[in-house]
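Hi there,

I know you've been waiting on this one. I reran it after we fixed the sequence typo, so this is the corrected version. Both the input and the resulting structure follow.
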Amino acid sequence: MDTWVKLNASSAGKDKLIRVLQYTLKVVNHYHQQRHTNAGTLQTWKQLEGSLSSFRKLLRMGKSVEVLRGTSRTIRLSDPVYRVTLTIGRIAQSMFLFADHLLWLSRAGVISIDVKKWEQIFYRCWLYSITMNLCRDVYDLWRAAELYAEHGMPPAPRRRLLPELRARPLALILDRHRDLAVDFVKNAFDLMLPLAALGHAPLSSGAVGVCGVVSSALALWTVVDPSLTLRPS
C-alpha cells in the first residue's frame, strides 16, 4: 500500500507506471497479431495502447522546460565527464520532449507540423540522450574498476553471492553498486527503442515491447527505492 501511495504521489511515478502498462500492451498486441486474433479485438487493444501513450504525453507537457533548466546545475559539476554527459544528455532529453509536445499538439489538432520530420527529431534526440546516459554509466564502471584495481574489492554485502559471480570482477562491481547496475541495464534496454524506431535495430513490435517493459520496470524501481538513483543526476 505504501508503495502504491508513493507512486501516485509523484508525476514520475505515475509516468513510469503508465509506461509499464503501455509497453505491456505492445507485447499483448504483438501476441494477438501472431495469433491472428479478430480485427475488432486487436483494434481495441491498439486503441488502449494509444490512449495510454497519449495520456503520458499529456502528463509530460511542459517538462522539456524543467529538464532544460536542470542544465544550470549539471554545467557546474566539477567532474568534466559528468559535466559533459549529463548536460548534453539533458539538452537532448529536453529536445525530444519538446518534439513530443509538438507531436501531441499536432495529433490533437491544435497545430499543424510535418509529423514525419518531428518524429525523426524525437527519436534521434531520444537516442542521443540515452547514449549520453550510457557513456556516464561506462565512466562510473571504469572509476569503480580503477578503485578495485588500486584498493581491492570493497567488503561484500550480507547476501551470499553465487560462486560464478565471485570469479567475475565486473559482476562483483555491479553487485556492490546496485544503482549503477540498474541504470546501466535500464539504459541498455531503452537504447533499443529509438534504434528500432529509426530502423537501426531489426526488432519486432513484441521485442520492442519487452525492452520497454524491462526499462520501465527498472525506472519504476528507482522511484520506489530512491537509493537506486545514480548521483549526480
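Quick highlight: The mean pLDDT is 86.

Best,
R. S.
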